[in-house]
Amino acid sequence: xxxxxxxxxxxxxxxxxxxxxxxxxxxxxxxxxxxxxxxxxxxxxxxxxxxxxxxxxxxxxxxxxxxxxxxxxxxxxxxxxxxxxxxxxxxxxxxxxxxxxxxxxxxxxxxxxxxxxxxxxxxxxxxxxxxxxxxxxxxxxxxxxxxxxxxxxxxxxxxxxxxxxxxxxxxxxxxxxxxxxxxxxxxxxxxxxxxxxxxxxxxxxxxxxxxxxxxxxxxxxxxxxxxxxxxxxxxxxxxxxxxxxxxxxxxxxxxxxxxxxxxxxxxxxxxxxxxxxxxxxxxxxxxxxxxxxxxxxxxxxxxxxxxxxxxxxxxxxxxxxxxxxxxxxxxxxxxxxxxxxxxxxxxxxxxxxxxxxxxxxxxxxxxxxxxxxxxxxxxxxxxxxxxxxxxxxxxxxxxxxxxxxxxxxxxxxxxxxxxxxxxxxxxxxxxxxxxxxxxxxxxxxxxxxx
Length: 450
Description:
Elements: E1 2-4, E2 29-30, E3 41-42, H1 56-71, E4 92-95, E5 100-103, H2 111-115, H3 120-132, E6 148-149, E7 153-156, E8 161-164, H4 166-181, H5 187-201, H6 214-220, H7 230-243, E9 248-249, E10 258-261, E11 270-273, E12 307-308, E13 316-317, H8 320-328, E14 341-345, H9 352-359, E15 363-364, H10 382-392, E16 397-402, E17 414-416, E18 424-426
Parallel strand pairs: 14-15, 14-16
Antiparallel strand pairs: 1-5, 2-3, 4-5, 6-7, 7-8, 8-9, 10-11, 12-13, 17-18
């Protein structure tokens, strides 16, 4: 691997003059500082690529691409897939702002490796940089190196891992030992150590779980000095020892098996997959519509409502009860399919909305109302509250409709009778009262008013 770095790449390329107003400083200074008229205040602007601007790297990369692939004539990288395999002796150039790297296959260690001779593409890059006045970073240049050394990390080709560079590791060790030997810590020391510790944890993420004392301390800050406790010192020692072995492997092998276990205190179940399926989940075909009910077996009459199975298996029922019986407990060929449900509370004696949803093929819950025959539901009774709670906890419930009668929430004990010659008619028990003007148990907050 060869490296062709530039020195301070973001400061080498300037922006167009029309961009300068966007990079101007808020404070004005005297123009004489820049060779202008004395006494005139001007606003200085940042002419090179700002380090804090999110587009700076993109612009610097594009300038570097033009320099490498255009000026130097380095071949652009091409796909290395099955259709266009890379030749064994073909160099591969990679550019990422700073530096440019060239990776090539070496068949054997020869004179070039011992002498450190650069490649032809490297020579072109050096000539072009000198002609346009771009300073190369000679101290950081690598020639035919087997291990690429970055500023802060190292890619070890022998072990196939990414680790922190030796300089960064030694710096972190020094900071850790400094804190361990100090009797009093200040805010700057703690935050410096925490920042370097987080950098070391980027090569081994589980290390972050150790920072139970130091990281909150760095976030909240220290007023004055802090005498470290034994627990904080132990945390620094533990993190320091484990971070020396931190590394991210770059070579992975695919496992032939995938194991899935249930996480539960009692153990649960386990499944292992050793191959991929050649087909997706099969859907049971829909059956032809029949002329009798799927549950009770009675004949379906065209002049009456017919309720289809919510899973669209093709079966039909003469009532909601039969459709739900087949859907929940019957022999539906699509029992493994989950279907969202609709639930209606205070549905009225005939529950027309529930019937409309069921006729359209939707899955519905048992409608709730005190006026429903053979299925009466009284909210004020304990069994009625338990029934409501049971339906509300249904995981398939997606839509609810609370529709009490229009007189349910009035304060009066009776409602007027509109029939001619009649007085007031005694109404059913009201859910709203003087003691609870917004409804019993807050039902009105759930959208129960009309």
